Amino acid sequence: MPSMPTVIGQFNATPLNTGFGDHALGKLGKRRVEQAQPQAPRSFGASLQKFANKVSNLASRVLNAITPSGVRTEDKFRRGLAATSKQVGNLLGALSQANDHPVDQAKVRSVLAKLPEVMGPVLRRGGEYTEVFSHRLAVNLENMTPAELAGLRDGVAQAQLSELAGDEGIKSHLDLIQQAVTQEIQSRVLERTKTAFAPVLEELRQLVVTEGVTRDPVEEEFAKMKSFAEDALRQYGENTDLALALVTETVSELVNTPENGPVPLAQFKHALTHLSSETLLELRQAPDTWTGASTFEVRHTIGRVVESRQIDAEQGFIAGATSILGRESVTTAELGELIRDLDATTRHLGVLKSHGEIHDLVEDGQVETQRQDLKPHLEKLLTEGAHDLAGLTNRELHQLKSSLKALGVTGPEKALTAEIRKREVELEKQYTAGLLLVAKVVNSGDYAGVIAALTDFATMEDEVRNGWMQLGRKLDDPDAIYRWRAEAGAAALAGASDEELAEVFKAFQAKGMQSFGECLVDAGSRFAGYDETDLRHDALSKELTNLGTNLARIKEKVEIEVERRGLPDLQKTDEVPLQRDLPDVAREAIKGMLGVEMGLEKGVRLVKGSVPDGALERLQTSLTEPRSGTEVEKGKLFSGEELGISTIFKRDLERGAFKIKTADGVENVYKFPVIPKDAPESEVTRLKDEAMKEALTRLSEFFGNDDEMLWAVSQYVHQGTVACFQLAMGSPVDGFIRLEDGTPVMLSGEEHKSFTFEKKPEGGFRAVYHQSVDEATHYYALDGSPPKELEQDQSHFSLGFAMDIAPDKSVSMVGRPEFEYNLKPKD
User: Fold this and answer.
1) Distances (CA, A) of 529 to 538, 725, 743
2) What share of the chain has pLDDT > 90, as a percent?
3) How far apart are CA 738 and CA 823, in angstroms?
4) Which of 11, 134, 139, 646 has the fewest beta carbons closer than 10 A?
5) Tens digit of each residue's pLDDT (9 = 90 or more) over 41-81
6) Which of 748, 756, 757 is nearest to 792 (CA)?
């Protein structure tokens, strides 16, 4: 809502915080670069309450009684206030570093020297200088965008280190502005996180009362809060390392405020019990607070949860060990019960070891005593008498082996290893039979048979993989699964003769079969966009994708085996035909198996296009207008040594934003230095300087040791050049990421931005820009409404374009920037 008016006088007096339509940064505001629309003005009390308490409430002060000349006096007052407004804006503009604008010290001195005279008509009516300045400052800060506030904060910080701070009068203004800007940013950030956290805390409240809730969903909710905090801090250029401090501060305010707190502190504590020890440590080690507000209750609660986990694990282990030590013998029929007791007991031991080490806790002495007693006792229990392991499940076999290993029991290890290997061999035979069946059907050219065989193969592969996992193989991440499939596939094809392998290879290279796997995957992604009323739309999407992916994997395995054997006269077909080239018999096979046509029109809403004219014009302007600011300022090392690149390019280089493409592939230019945890500041800066020098050496070699070319590149190829895309995305007119109803939105998720340099055969260089959010988690409407969740695996965005740098150092754009995105809001 608008600020409450602060009035001088009693009759038609103009409020001190009247808006006059001036830009918050004065003349500099005309060059503003903003990534989102300005926020609506909010209450003065909300944004600068602490600051405002230090000045008088001018609303209660009557400066003078209105006389017949009061109207004329009021007119002078209003003109004086309007002039003051303009001067304060110019002062803030001179101090701001928005859009890489340097602090204009001369302008600061000039504006402040004139300000008392400009403010004269206001002061003559009884106003006090600091109070009037403070109110005008508040008006300007309320109407600044996040980027403008961040630029002003940085500029004032620089001014505090300059000659300006040596002037006592200027220093007092700088202190006043710095305090006000800090409080405005903190207020806005906290307001944003409170809005974003409320539904997350409500979700947590529901989760903790759900029976059987696991760790993952609770961890996800805490990860959301950290992500929201990082987004809020990042918007104002604040240090995202403070995200967890902001989380604890926001949560403290919400859970301790009855009217706003969706989660009572006791339920919040229950949620904490589901977090990993690592996450709890992150929360414990976060800075105390972000703004200085108290977070004692939340931090104390986190500490109690950490202590309780250690005590529970100690008690659990001692109880389990006591029970096992009380067994005098174990029969084959009792093995299952013993395995369950052992598994639970060693799990408690695992928690003690990991949790205790992470949080530097000392365990109960009885734990070590009983651990030593268990080893000889279990050796005796499991080696005396015969135990038939064949009756155990795969999972029980693995649990027994891993539990005994954790306790240092080695007696039964040989028998356990033999039984596990016996079962692994059976799984390998099952996988080989399934894969060879698919290969055989592919060789027959029967598309319907291929689909049926692939369906059976998928079921078999899941069973085999689950069997391996139950026996203890780690197959819970994509890389491990990929390696396992490669090994299993190679083993399965190793038994085929050269002639058999060659026949299957040729069948896969046939034009129809070559495209079959790719087309199935493509169709699967398109069917993901089916309406809820369509038959089996979700299952259909997954089934098509899995079929195509498996076919492509088996094809790849065949090609790898052919290459390994060096079979002559077998060439891969590089070109992958499009879906329209798929044979009719293949389409009929899909229709017959799944009951639907494979049509491109049945697609998910994948949006592709070129950036709007507004963004294109800004990009063209940024490439043609004269260089200025940090684009022409030489970058410097911490040591003070001047570099042959611009300051803005150096900043991007330190962020890892540049890559070079060579015959050996693509590599990052800047290699982040390994900095010891307790290294002194001098060592940190030395390591960073060395990393920068090494990066510049790589770049210089890539650009043929042409210093002039590198200098030219550094003036044009940087994040400032592509800021137009962010500006367009934050505009209701030019915003090109839109919901189906046309609403422009911005995305939240891990964003990647990079320039890749390539050498052009005819001379010169090309810089290819790529920007993406591979898994968007939320979208934000531009009206300031709370973020909405997206299906991460179905929501993404990418944008790219290229610019050429000719041998004469001229820069030109190649084509028009293109973008692609898909948004899948959660139901």
Assistant:
1) 9, 28, 19
2) 19
3) 9
4) 11
5) 333 333 333 333 333 333 333 333 333 444 445 567 778 78
6) 748
